[in-house]
Amino acid sequence: MNNQSPVPIVPRADHSVSRQSISENALKVLYRLKKANYDAYLVGGGVRDILLGKQPKDFDIATNASPEQLRDLFRNSRIIGRRFRLVHVRFGRDIIEVATFRSGHTDTDDDTLARVADGLIVRDNVYGTLEEDAWRRDFTINALYYNIDDFSLVDYTGGLPDLETRTLRMIGDPVVRLQEDPVRMLRAVRLAAKLDFNIEPQLEEQILAQGERLELVPSARLYDEVIKLFFSGHGQHTLILLEQYRLLQYLFTLTSSCLSKDDYPEKFIQIAVRNTDRRIADDLPVTPAFLFAAMLWPAVQEQSRALEKVGHSPLQALNIAGGEALQVHHTPVAIPKRFRLVMKEIWGFQNRLEQPKGKRALKLVEHPRFRAAYDFLLLRNEAGEPLDELCKWWTEFQQASREVQHEMCRTLGGGSGRKRRRSRSGKKSSPNKSE
Ligand code: ATP
Ligand code: MG
Predict the structure, then answer these.
(1) Any idea what the Cα angle at residue 337 is, between residues 347 and 214, rounded to 5°?
(2) What is the CATH number of the domain that holds 228?
(3) Is any atom of ligand 1 closer than 6 Å to the C-beta of 194?
(4) Is the Cβ atom of 15 under 6 angstroms away from ligand 1?
(5) DSSP result, 84-124
(6) In which domain, by residue range, is 228 found?
(7) How far apart are CA 376 and CA 372, in angstroms?
(8) End of a domain among 165, 193, 208?
(9) Choosing from 133, 138, 155, 181, which is the catalytic residue?
(10) 121, 143, 165 — which closes off a domain?
(11) Per-residue pLDDT reduced to its tens digit, 89-140
(12) Which of 35, 209, 358, 422 sits at 20 to 30 Å (Cα–Cα) from 428?
């Protein structure tokens, strides 16, 4: 940073951020801070997205007030922070995140900033000035500040020209900044996908070089990032970039190794991610359990087939393979237990759906996990598994009256269902109706 250069301020007349694009609650917080004589700026994704003509997902505020001063100022607030201390100001369900200016000092003597030997920042709570706060942020386009005092923009790091050229550029040296926090690689991919920006070549090179450092990231933090990667509505593009930058292997290790072997896994995962994007676009609910079950399915299926070959029953094989796939060395992302249970149910259900013997089908449709498992079956069919007839049977079965359902069960008989669950390349199967 160069203290000689003038503060790079863009006056209100020369930029497009208007108060109309800022949420009422964020404005309330900004004005309250100003009234109490603190500095207050909108920063991060909020400013960036408004400048790009997009609706911001959330509004982050930076100030010179300390967390304690903030808590005193806002009764509806609390101090939070796993890594940094932030203040959440709550308005009903809406939360505005307010952070005190931080510096990114590398001074290891300072015990408020702990670093481990290889450059990774573990704790980072040194308060600083506006300028220092700008330089410790990740990308130039994320370090633009909107000043509530005079409605100007402050751009220390060159974010505005990078927005113009749609460039995602790391602030400072990408070698060091990715060492400090490897999650920045995932953030780069997520933002490049969401905004359709190009990752600047030096950053690109370092992502390819430093991917392995994601192994140093705690699994809970990886989980938070993975949720943002796949549930922000741009999953498809994100997946392409994760593969291109060879990062998927640090999130879903087994999936990544399956992808190189066959076309089906790639197709299956792409369809699952695309469906999630569509559901988000249509405002339909999405559950991480379903998408994660899909992410791991090709690997689970492969392993389960191998187990069947050595004598396990199909259900046993699926259970064992599912349990293994979820172990931390295969899935370093800390998927919460409640989702892991659902994932296992979805996998186990695949076997039962493939053999709707006798009256069992009547019970299965009533099961709370049936819908997810059925959707999962459709996904497998769409990706090229020979399950056309079976899917049709289940679709019809669900829509049928109770009487017709009984009839459909009867005609199923005790079943040759096992025949159906063969290889993807095998010929199209039909459900075991009595022909
Ligand atoms: P989104 O639209 O997803 O909210 P965002 O850029 O606002 O994108 P946040 O996670 O809300 O992302 O972070 C807010 C801001 O905090 C970022 O814009 C960036 O300036 C800074 N930031 C977040 N994570 C990091 C990080 N790992 N390293 C440095 N700065 C970060
Ligand atoms: Mg944000």
Answers:
(1) 95
(2) 1.10.3090.10
(3) no
(4) no
(5) S-EEEEEETTEEEEEEE-B-----TT-TTEEE-TTS-EEEE
(6) 218-435
(7) 6
(8) 165
(9) 138
(10) 165
(11) 999 999 999 999 998 754 433 444 455 556 666 555 578 899 999 999 999 9
(12) 358
